[in-house]
Every structure is written in C-alpha cells, then in structure tokens.
Amino acid sequence: MPAWITRRRPRGSTALLAAFGLAAAAMTWRANAQGRAGHDNPVAAKYGRSLQALYPGLTAAEIDQLLRETWGRPLAAETGGRFREAPYQGTFVNVTREGFRAVPHQGPWPIDRNRYYVVFLFGGSSAFNYGVPDEQTIAAYLQDLLARLDPKRPARVYNFGVAFYTSTQERQLFEALLQQGAVPDLAVFLDGMNDFCYTRGAPPKAPHVPDAAVHVPAETRWDDYIRQLKRSPLGLAVRNLRNRVLGWHLARRMKSDTARVAAAPGRASEETAPVEELSEARQAPAAAQPAADA
Predict the structure, then answer these.
(1) Which of 54, 160, 186, 221 has the smallest number of CB atoms closer than 10 Å to its CB?
(2) Interatomic CA distance for residues 258 and 260, integer angstroms
C-alpha cells in the first residue's frame, strides 16, 4: 500500500481539518442563501449567481420573466397517475391545450398532413427546452430547417416534450395520440438522461409536480446542507482521496493481471490452438477439391 495511505497524521490536525471543512461548508451555504435572496428567478436564486452572460440578448428583467415562466408552471395531472405540461400563455413560454409547446408558425391542430409535413417531437425537459424562449427551442430550429427542404409542403413540428418524462412515458403518449387519429409523418424521440436518472419510476425531486400526478418527497433543509458539504473543501478532499484509492486499486489489479499473463505464456497458444485447427480444417477441403474433380 502506498506510503501516503499508511502514513498517520496527528489527531489534532485531523480534527482541525474537519472543523475547517464544516466551517467552510457553513459559510458557503450562508453565502449562497444570501445570494439566493437577491435574485428574482428560481435558477439564479438556487445557484446564487447572475445568468446575464448566458442570455446576451435579454435584460435582467426579461431573464427573470423567462425563468419564472419556465420553472414556475405546475404540471397537469391526468388519469392513471400520468402528468403532462399544463396549458400556459406567457411572454416566452406558451403551451397549447393539446399539450405541445408552441413554436413560430405553429401548425394547426388537428394536424393537416395534406398541407404540411408533420413531425412530433417527444422527450423530457431537454426536448421541451426549459430555460429558452419558444423561438429558440429544438423544435423551432428543426421546423425551420425542415421547412426549407420542401417549400410546397413545409414541415410543422409539434413539441410534446414533458419534464421528467422517460422513453416509456413518451411511447405511451405517442400511442395515445395515434389512437386519437393524430398520425405524423415523422416522430422524433430525444432521450437518455431521464431514463438513467429515474430508473425506479417517479422522479426523486420534482416539487412542482402535483401530488395527484406523482408522489414526490419534498426536499428538506438537510438536503441543502449535504449538498453544500459535498462542495466544501472537506468534501472535495474526501472525493479526491476516494479517487486516489480507487486509482491505486485499479493500477494494482491491472499490474497483477499483467503479471499473471506473463507468467503463463503457453496459455495463450493453447487457447488459440482450436482456432488454428479449425482454420486448417476449413482450408483442407478447398485444397483437395481440384484433385477430386480431376
């Protein structure tokens, strides 16, 4: 075992390091709490930072309005424990009664495949595009791109993205639309993150989801304490120590495997022998074929 693991530290320095880490975590949490109080949108309030650099074309008031419209909307509960994006009309975010987010030059509902090339977009919050205006969503850019391909039958994209949705819920929504007679020319599914994060069904933290739609435990103050502690110098030191131990263990395992293979050089040749024999057996009939024909 490396010396940096076995070397002992004085108990006093360890206690001092722990006290310093806890104090730093407390100060970080207090500073972030004070920073959250000075912002008028949920994202900046959560992280205690200004978001002006991310929205160069918007004023501070417009950024606050956009993020309030994005994160301040409750999800609508449906039968069977399902939920969807609720109808909403805002300055930057608009959701129709049918449940899709509007884009510029939005196609009609019911859909009209005779006039338009109809595309349904499914996904979670990344497809809905939390944090950007209607005209800057993936659906808006996709519609603009596809519409240039065939001006006689331009594309119309319907954004059915719903926060927290997984591929299973999207498939169910797609099937429900098909049963209603809404059959698109193309269906696009944007997935990945939620399928890995929410493997047990209900999302673990979604405070704006109605209780009638899905049961979500509320985040407590201790969750915030733990999050700040992980980001403190003590938490970073523990994470660094863990990574170094895992790296040392992996390097030792690889060294052991390499030594074991080097100690038995004949094993590899024995394992490849059946493959060589099979190869020779396959070549033998081909070589003997001309003699047989003669």
Answers:
(1) 221
(2) 5
The sign of the CA dihedral 29, 31, 33, 39 is negative
Output helix, strand, coil percentages for the chain, rounded to the nearest 5: 55, 10, 35
* Number of neighbouring beta carbons within 10 Å of residue 214: 17
59-76 pLDDT per residue, tens: 999 999 999 999 888 889
Residue 241: CB atoms within 10 Å? 12
- b (16+ CB within 10 A) / e for 49-82: eebeeebeebeeeebbbbbbbbbebebbbeeeeb
pLDDT band at 42 (very low <50, low <70, confident <90, very high): confident
What is the residue type of 105? H
Pairing outcome for strands 83-85 and 75-77: antiparallel
